[in-house]
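Dear H.,

Thanks for agreeing to be a second pair of eyes. The structure we're designing against is below in C-alpha cell form, covering all 280 positions.
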C-alpha cells in the first residue's frame, strides 16, 4: 500500500478533485481483466456491507451513515467508506475536516467522529459500510468483482419507478454472488411530530389502502429478500445530516416522538446485523 495513493483518496473526499476527474457526465470506464478476477477479503475487516440504490438521491448516504453509527455506538468496531468519488457525502455528514495524520509507524490515522472511523487505515473492524454511488455502473461492478462483499442493503423510495430500478439493482448483486440483506424503504410516510400520526406521501408503494399485492414489501416477498424497515420523511433527518450530527447521535437519550428517527435507524441496523451475522 503506498501512502501517497491513500493520501490522494482523502483529498478526493475533501472535494479538491486532485485527480482531475470529471464532475459530471459519463464516468470513465475502468479496464477490466479477462475472466473472473478473484475476490479479495479486506484485511482485518470481518464483514463488508454495501449500501446501494438504483436511483440517486434516495437517501443512501444518510442511511449508510446512520446505520454505521448505530453499530459504532453499540461498541461494534465500525468503519464507513465513501466510494462515490464523483460526489462524496460522508465528510459532511460526519462533520469531518482536516488532513489525516500519520501515526508513529507512518500509517495514516482514520478521521474519526462519534467513534466511527472513516476512510483509509482503520485497524481491525467488525464491519465496514460502503456507501456506493447510485446505479449499477463501473464503480459498483468493480467493487463487487474485486472484494468480498458480505451483503448489500438496497435503499429505495416507494415510487413505482424507483422500485422497478431497485429490483434491477438486486439482480446485479445476485448475479455477482453478493447476498442481498434486504430493502430499506425511505420517505414513504411523514410522522407528525405532535401526535405521531403517519401520513403516506405517495399514493403508490406504501400499500395499505390499495387492493393487490404490490409495493416495496410485496417485491421483497416476491424476491425472497428481507424488508428491513422504513425511514420516515422528516426534515430533522435532513437537518441533522446537514449539520454533521446524524439522527442516531442527535437523538441519543430521547424518548417517544422525540426519538422516532433514531429508533427507525436502530431497528434497521439490528436487522442488518442479524442478516450479515454480526452480534448485536
Ligand atoms: N428520510 C429522510 N427525510 C428527509 N430528508 C431525507 C431523508 N433521507 C434523505 N434525506 C435528504 O435527501 C437528500 C439526499 O439524501 P442522500 O444524500 O443521503 O441520498 P443519496 O442516495 O446518497 O444521494 P446520491 O445518489 O447523490 O449519493 C439529502 O439532503 C438528505 O438529507
Ligand atoms: Mg450519496
Ligand atoms: Zn399530528
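And this is the sequence the design step returned. I haven't edited it by hand at all.
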Amino acid at each position: 500500500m503506498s501512502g501517497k495513493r491513500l493520501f490522494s483518496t482523502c483529498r478526493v473526499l475533501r472535494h479538491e478533485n486532485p485527480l482531475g476527474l470529471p464532475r459530471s457526465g459519463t464516468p470513465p470506464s475502468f479496464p477490466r481483466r479477462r475472466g473472473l478476477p478473484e475476490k479479495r477479503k479486506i484485511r482485518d475487516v470481518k464483514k463488508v456491507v454495501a449500501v446501494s440504490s438504483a436511483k440517486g438521491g434516495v437517501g443512501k448516504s444518510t442511511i449508510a451513515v446512520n446505520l454505521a453509527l448505530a453499530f459504532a455506538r453499540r461498541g461494534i468496531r465500525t468503519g464507513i467508506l465513501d466510494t462515490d468519488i464523483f460526489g462524496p457525502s460522508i465528510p459532511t455528514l460526519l462533520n469531518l475536516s482536516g488532513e489525516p495524520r500519520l501515526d508513529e509507524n507512518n500509517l495514516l490515522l482514520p478521521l474519526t467522529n462519534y467513534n466511527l472511523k472513516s476512510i483509509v487505515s482503520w485497524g481491525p473492524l467488525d464491519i465496514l459500510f460502503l456507501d456506493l454511488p447510485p446505479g449499477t455502473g463501473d464503480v459498483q461492478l468493480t467493487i463487487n468483482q474485486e472484494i468480498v462483499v458480505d451483503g448489500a442493503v438496497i435503499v429505495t423510495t416507494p415510487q413505482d419507478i424507483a422500485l422497478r430500478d431497485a429490483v434491477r439493482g438486486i439482480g446485479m448483486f445476485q448475479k455477482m454472488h453478493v447476498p442481498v440483506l434486504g430493502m430499506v424503504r425511505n420517505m414513504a410516510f411523514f410522522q407528525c411530530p405532535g401526535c405521531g400520526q403517519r401520513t403516506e406521501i405517495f399514493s403508490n408503494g406504501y400499500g395499505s389502502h390499495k387492493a393487490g399485492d404490490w409495493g416495496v414489501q410485496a417485491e421483497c416477498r416476491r424476491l425472497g429478500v428481507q424488508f428491513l424497515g422504513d425511514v420516515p420523511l422528516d426534515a430533522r433527518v435532513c437537518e441533522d445530516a446537514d449539520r454533521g450530527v446524524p439522527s442516531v447521535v442527535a437523538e441519543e437519550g430521547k424518548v417517544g416522538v422525540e426519538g422516532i428517527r433514531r429508533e427507525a435507524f436502530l431497528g434497521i441496523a439490528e436487522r442488518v446485523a442479524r442478516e450479515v451475522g454480526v452480534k448485536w
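Two observations from my side: The radius of gyration is 19 Å. The chain has nine helices and nine strands.

Warmly,
E.
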